[in-house]
Amino acid sequence: MTRYFSEDHEWIEVEGDLGTVGITDYAQGQLGDITFVELPAEGSTVGKGDSVSVVDSVKAASDVYTPVSGTVTEVNGALADTPELVNTEADTGGWLFRVTLSDAAELGGLMDEAAYKSYVESL
Amino acid sequence: MSEYPVTPDEDEAEDLAPLTLPLDAWHQTQGGRMVEFAGYMMPVQYEGIMAEHLWTRENAGLFDVSHMGQLLVSGEGVEAALETALPIDLSTLKLGTVRYSLLLDDEGGILDDLMVARWPGGLYVVVNGATKWDDIGTLRELLPDDVTLNHLDDRALLALQGPKAFAALERHASGEYPLSALTFMKGGQFTLGGVDAWISRSGYTGEDGFEISIPADDVEAVAQLLCGEPEVKPIGLGARDSLRLEAGLPLYGHDLSPETSAVDADLKFAINKRRRTEGGFPGSDRVIRDFADGTARRRIGLTLEGRMAAREGAKVFNNDQEVGIVTSGGFSPSLQHPIAMAYVDAALVAEGTALTIEMRGKRLDAKVAAMPFVPHRYHR
């Protein structure tokens, strides 16, 4: 399993052609207390960079962009009642959706963990 | 204290980098996340909006509102002069009493909402930070030359809010009479940790609490003193906004603007009784007409189903007909569901009326709700 990061602060963990997408711990810290997560429809086709999900905090609503193209196979149902999982477990239990990749080459444009870390430090 | 004019040129003001408040360094030491608001760098949050909100509802929160404009209007004929500028009845405003009022334009549109208190040496007025320069200009035009308008820009303003605010403040406040003598919307001169302070029992959260005007040079010592009390934590702008929304209190620039009037904003109480009949203030013809005829729309509260919040600018529908617009909205930390303020057709303001709100292509179910959403707990 390999984890990649986008400049928009999403992470995607890839195993074979299946990716699991979430927002980074840095992103949840910036957004603050998350009160609602709008998720894409299962079975929907998404294109890299599309706004597919919205994370609502007490303060404001923020778009989540899919870092890869593909088909959404599953969404994190636990977020309906406990959206705060995105705050407390951004890297793990607070994942948003799973997607089958239609173009694995898109991963090449993403950062690895070390590169993302220095990207955040530069902000 | 500096006498007007102190306004930077308007164009210049827009180009200037944000100003810092007297407590700027202290906020950063406390872990405040600083953002620009009303031309100042201000703390939006410290530990998190939800925690700060709930702390204030259960304990006491300290807010730095030094960006607001503190004015003192005084001089020969000040009573009559200020009544030509505001719809307030000063004949019923006793010494040490605070009252909410509005600054209106000639068409009755709201230029600002403000507080007026009677001090021994004049009338003390607190206006919003984002509008203070314009307000000073407007008031100077409306007031005759022999009335003096001082901008008390060497003073800071703190708010201590919450059910334990009294207990925390009482340990440090002394004066001619005890702090307990103050009830809601009363104020007086006290000494707070050796610092001369004007303290009023008022605020913007719906809780019991106090607003404290002190010299800017002393504000850090006073903030430190109050936050040393176990009941008190510093609270940022984020929770200030969610607290006032739950309390049903409008925010200027969002729920109030020159396009809203006292009657459609549901602020009839801000037009004092005698002034409704006598008029003689900017926009009074419109205000008197609105009192008689009503208005086409009204500011109301909405509670939403589900967890998705409606935000400012969202359209409100009655079936397929667009009937209004959301002016403030968010998730209520105390109620754990979204709430909003909106202006809707006056025929649809009855409590319980079912409406929908359009957000990101979806229709959210909402019901007209009485405000405040969370009951006020003022010490009357």
Notes on the structure:
Chain A is 16% helix and 37% strand. Chain A has 123 residues and is α+β, with helices and mostly antiparallel strands. In chain A, the strands form 2 sheets. In chain A, strands 1-2-3-9-8-5 form a 6-stranded antiparallel beta sheet. In chain A, strands 4-6-7 form a 3-stranded antiparallel beta sheet. In chain A, a hairpin with a 2-residue loop joins strand 2 and strand 3. Residues 1-13 of chain B have low confidence and may be disordered. Chain B folds into 2 domains: 1-295, Gyrase A, domain 2 (2-Layer Sandwich); 296-373 and 376-380, Elongation Factor Tu (Ef-tu), domain 3 (Beta Barrel). Chain B is of the alpha+beta class. Chain B is 22% helix and 35% strand. In chain B, the strands form 4 sheets. Chain B has a 7-stranded mixed beta sheet with strand order 12-13-14-15-11-5-16, sandwiched between helices. Chain B has a 6-stranded antiparallel beta sheet with strand order 1-10-6-9-8-7. In chain B, strand 8 (110-119) and strand 9 (122-127) form a beta hairpin. Chain B has helices at 10-15, 24-29, 49-58, 78-85, 132-142, 165-170, 219-227, 237-246, 273-278, 284-293, and strands spanning 2-3, 19-20, 33-37, 40-45, 60-64, 69-75, 98-104, 110-119, 122-127, 147-151, 155-161, 173-175, 187-192, 195-200, 209-215, 232-234, 297-304, 315-318, 321-332, 337-345, 354-359, 362-369.
Quick take:
With 123 residues, chain A is of the alpha+beta class. Chain A has three helices and nine strands.
CATH class of chain A: Mainly Beta
Mean pLDDT of chain B, nearest integer? 95
CATH architecture of the largest domain in chain B: 2-Layer Sandwich
**Any guess at the CATH architecture of chain A?**
Beta Barrel
- What number of structural domains do the residues of chain A give? 1
- The CATH homologous superfamily of chain A is named RNA polymerase II/Efflux pump adaptor protein, barrel-sandwich hybrid domain
Oligomer: heterodimer
Strand content of chain A: 35-45%
The largest sheet of chain B is: 7 strands, mixed
Q: Gyration radius of chain A, to the nearest Å?
A: 13 Å
Number of separate domains of chain B = 2
Tally the beta strands of chain B: 22
